[in-house]
TrEMBL record:
<dbReference type="GO" id="GO:0050418">
    <property type="term" value="F:hydroxylamine reductase activity"/>
</dbReference>
<feature type="binding site">
    <location>
        <position position="66"/>
    </location>
    <ligand>
        <name>[4Fe-4S] cluster 2</name>
    </ligand>
</feature>
<feature type="binding site">
    <location>
        <position position="285"/>
    </location>
    <ligand>
        <name>[Ni-4Fe-4S] cluster</name>
    </ligand>
</feature>
<feature type="binding site">
    <location>
        <position position="471"/>
    </location>
    <ligand>
        <name>[Ni-4Fe-4S] cluster</name>
    </ligand>
</feature>
<dbReference type="InterPro" id="IPR016101">
    <property type="entry name" value="CO_DH_a-bundle"/>
</dbReference>
<protein>
    <recommendedName>
        <fullName>Carbon monoxide dehydrogenase</fullName>
        <ecNumber>1.2.7.4</ecNumber>
    </recommendedName>
</protein>
<dbReference type="GO" id="GO:0006091">
    <property type="term" value="P:generation of precursor metabolites and energy"/>
</dbReference>
<feature type="binding site">
    <location>
        <position position="71"/>
    </location>
    <ligand>
        <name>[4Fe-4S] cluster 2</name>
    </ligand>
</feature>
<feature type="binding site">
    <location>
        <position position="501"/>
    </location>
    <ligand>
        <name>[Ni-4Fe-4S] cluster</name>
    </ligand>
</feature>
<dbReference type="InterPro" id="IPR010047">
    <property type="entry name" value="CODH"/>
</dbReference>
<dbReference type="GO" id="GO:0004601">
    <property type="term" value="F:peroxidase activity"/>
</dbReference>
<keyword id="KW-0411">Iron-sulfur</keyword>
<feature type="binding site">
    <location>
        <position position="54"/>
    </location>
    <ligand>
        <name>[4Fe-4S] cluster 1</name>
    </ligand>
</feature>
<feature type="binding site">
    <location>
        <position position="62"/>
    </location>
    <ligand>
        <name>[4Fe-4S] cluster 1</name>
    </ligand>
</feature>
<feature type="binding site">
    <location>
        <position position="319"/>
    </location>
    <ligand>
        <name>[Ni-4Fe-4S] cluster</name>
    </ligand>
</feature>
<dbReference type="GO" id="GO:0042542">
    <property type="term" value="P:response to hydrogen peroxide"/>
</dbReference>
<keyword id="KW-0479">Metal-binding</keyword>
Length: 658
């Protein structure tokens, strides 16, 4: 593991690759504002690594759960100066071995990630139930999607009114999330491919009432509870599957409420901020609020002009930003890791957040600016915030108040404390989905839309499909693991889908527009041209398909399930691979464990806190294949990561005899 940490340091030593980030970090340093990159640099500045990040924590060998501790254990891979601080014990005070400790701490990480996505899904499901009751704030926008979801859930829609169908869908979602109910989750049965033998054998098909299962999981990690390393790791798979289903529920309900995304041209970069307008940054993950903010920003344009602005400009970051991008074409100011920079420009008048991935440092940054830091949900309160609670009943009033706060802040903006980088951003095409892709394929084969895609995979024009997903990290060279991997995959004729911050990184480096097709292998280039013509686009589709936000990773799971059913096989047999190359938050661990449980081998490129247990590493990277047909690939070097992913695709092609 130590070699992984050393490789990370080597990669981040290459500096910042995005010139907008580089310019803005330099500006903020002049203003005395530290960013995530400055904090990382501080850890790197000591002699002999004495001030490096905690080695015990980095290896998963520190437990502070109970008051007998904190306890730390030794490991062969610890650096010398850390080994000198290791007590002469083989177990923690309560008796945990290194294997127990590492696996238990990893399960806690997965549980926090899964609970985050369950929380998101519950927010959306409750709002969906109100929509089904006839809420004026949230009408059902996509009736076709409602009928499709109802059919997948086994709901008879004959001669039923739209709201009655929606009530039944909402009821099944709430049963899956909070109960009551018996048997497997309804949405699990809708998502799963026909061949679920491996999932069933490993007892990985979850039952209704996911929140109760989460409570049981948290209970199992308490002091004096589960200490079987194997069972702890199997629990990681189980809660990973629940996480993917929470994503699936959120995506399906959001599509019904807000509409299935369709390809939209837009822009990404901090230059989407406009100095002569009121700028509102939407940030977080739940898109229903951000859509309301966009709506009321349009309604209150004249009020902004009366305040001296030329209008109102709503821009996004993180997954909330992605959601309004793929449905409304709203531009993205940047990726989640850039939030300090975007707010620090002094051009943002209000940053409106809902839940997850919001840096606490925004409190400090906004304290020295005119910018309103607006929180909207009780789970996320911040120092120096303006709290405007968002509920289904007050959505219109909350959105109005948020926009009015931004207009008031605009009047206080200091012209001499405004900065925008000179480097310009990029055009992008976002808004692809499973439905969009199948709609394009239907133009090639109306009766069997999957046949053209599968035929292209069989004949080798498309070698396989890769999904790039998850966060961006300052612990390596930010963006460049994804960018390097993406370019290598494309060169080797692998079709690439991207979600979340991985997608925004690719967009900021110009990979989400048709002009980037020069990077693509010959056979895949022809495929992109064919699909572009079928889609009615002016030229080919982008070399990387933007498949939405992080919750929209479920769209990729749906596509995998459809292909598996078409070929009458299981997902683990397909030439598919995923990468969370720069994973940061707990949700990423929950997603990649869920994806592995479904049968898709997944790569990570930042050192996980698992190195204190060679047994756990071996289980995840090798032995899991006997259970799920897939494994975890841990590789920090981007070129080697791409090679490992391509090698996996070739292995699966060989297994299928193609």
């Amino acid at each position: 593991m130590q070699k992984w940490l050393e490789k990370e340091k080597e990669l981040r030593g290459k500096g910042i690759a995005d010139k907008q980030i580089e310019e803005t970090v330099a500006f903020l340093r002049q203003k005395g504002i530290d960013t995530v990159w400055d904090v990382q640099a501080t850890y790197d500045s000591s002699l002999f690594g004495l001030k490096d990040r905690c080695s015990f924590g980095s290896h998963g060998l520190c437990c502070r759960n109970c008051n007998l501790g904190p306890c730390r254990l030794g490991g062969e891979d610890l650096p010398l100066h850390t080994k000198l601080a290791v007590p002469n014990v083989k177990r923690s005070s309560c008796g945990k071995t290194a294997d127990n400790m590492v696996a238990g701490m990893f399960l806690q990480t997965v549980l926090r990630g899964t609970s985050s996505h369950i929380g998101h899904a519950i927010h959306v499901a409750k709002l969906f139930v109100r929509a089904a009751e006839g809420s004026e704030n949230f009408p059902i926008k996509d009736e076709a999607k409602l009928h499709s979801v109802a059919k997948e859930l086994g709901i008879n829609t004959d001669e039923k009114q739209i709201l009655d169908i929606a009530k039944e869908v909402g009821q099944k979602a709430m049963e899956d999330l909070v109960g009551p109910g018996e048997g497997p989750m309804s949405f699990a049965l809708a998502l799963a491919p026909k061949n679920v033998d491996k999932l069933a054998k490993a007892n990985l098909i979850p039952h209704k009432g996911a929140t109760e299962t989460i409570v049981q999981g948290i209970h199992s990690t308490a002091q004096g509870m589960m200490s079987s390393t194997d069972h702890l790791l199997m629990s990681c798979l189980k809660f990973g599957v629940i996480d993917v289903l929470a994503l699936y529920i959120s995506t399906q309900l959001q599509d019904i409420l807000l509409g299935v995304p369709a390809p939209k041209e837009s822009m990404i970069g901090m230059d989407v901020l406009e100095k002569d307008k009121v700028n509102i940054l939407v940030h977080g993950h739940v898109p229903v609020l951000s859509e309301m903010v966009v709506n009321y920003a349009n309604k209150l344009e004249e009020k902004a002009k009366a305040a001296g602005a030329k209008g109102i400009n709503v821009v996004g970051t993180c997954c909330t930003g992605t959601e309004v991008l793929v449905r409304l074409g709203i531009p993205m100011a940047g990726s989640t890791i850039m939030q300090e920079l975007v707010v620090g420009t002094g051009v943002v008048d209000a940053v409106c957040v809902d839940v997850q991935c919001v840096y606490p440092s925004l409190s400090t940054i906004t304290q020295g600016l005119h910018t309103r830091l607006i929180t909207t949900m009780p789970e996320l309160r911040m120092d120096n915030d303006t709290y405007i609670e968002f509920t289904p009943d007050n959505a219109d009033k909350a959105a109005t108040q948020i926009v009015e706060e931004a207009i008031a802040a605009y009047k206080e903006r200091s012209a001499d404390r405004v900065f925008l980088p000179k480097v310009k951003g990029h055009k992008l095409l976002g808004g692809f989905s499973t439905e969009t892709l199948i709609g394009v394929l239907e133009k090639l084969n109306p009766q069997k839309p999957l046949k053209p895609l599968v035929d292209l995979i069989i004949d080798g024009s498309i070698q396989g499909v890769a999904v790039l997903a998850g966060c961006l990290s300052s612990k390596i060279q930010t963006d460049m693991s994804f960018i390097t991997i993406a370019k290598e995959l494309l060169k080797n004729n692998v079709l690439v889908l991207a979600t979340g911050c991985a997608a925004t990184a690719c967009a900021r480096h110009g990979l989400l527009n048709g002009e980037a097709k020069s990077l693509v292998g010959n056979s895949l280039r022809g495929v992109l041209d064919t699909l572009g013509k079928a889609a009615g686009l002016n030229g080919s589709i982008p070399p990387i398909l933007h498949f939405g936000s992080c919750v929209d990773n479920s769209r990729c799971a749906v596509l995998a399930s459809l292909i598996a059913d078409y070929l009458d096989t299981s997902i683990d047999k397909l030439p598919l691979v995923a990468s969370a190359a720069e994973h940061v938050v707990e949700k990423a661990a929950a997603i990649y464990m869920g994806v592995i449980a479904l049968g898709i081998t997944t790569h990570i490129g930042v050192t996980p806190k698992l190195g204190g247990s060679p047994y756990v590493i071996n289980m995840l990277t090798k032995e899991l294949e006997n259970i799920t047909g897939s494994t975890l690939i841990i590789e920090i070097e981007p070129q080697e990561s791409a090679k490992a992913m391509i090698s996996h695709i070739q292995k699966k092609r060989k297994g299928l005899g193609i």
